[in-house]
Amino acid sequence: MAAGFLLDWIASALLKDRHFAGPQWGEFAIDVANLALFLGVALRSGRYWPLFAAAFQLLAVITHVASTFDRHLSAWAYITASVIWTYCILGALAYGAWTAWRSGRQRPANAELMADPGATLR
Known about the structure:
The protein is mainly alpha-helical. It has one domain. 75% of the residues lie in helices and 0% in strands. It contains 5 helices and no strands. Helix 1 packs antiparallel against helix 2 and helix 2 (25-44) runs antiparallel to helix 3 (49-69). The chain is elongated and about 55 Å long. The termini are far apart.
């Protein structure tokens, strides 16, 4: 998910229309693809943080849709919403990385011996 987010960020920077005269179609397509990736991971994962990342990505896609239907939406509101959802996605990814690191640190060195309920340490 982090690699997909990084590719989304790079491609969005390359395809961004700097005039903000209308909807950002390149960014919209990239965000929809990233939403599909996030949803795929979230539906297969046993953890909760991918669901939050996918929900924030969905809000980013909805922001694109809102700018398409409402031509009076200012560029400032559009950019601000995009930045907020980006920070929320980064927060979910950071939490996922932190919990993965923490669970790896808490696993004892002899975890394979402790995995069997009948195993004893000698």
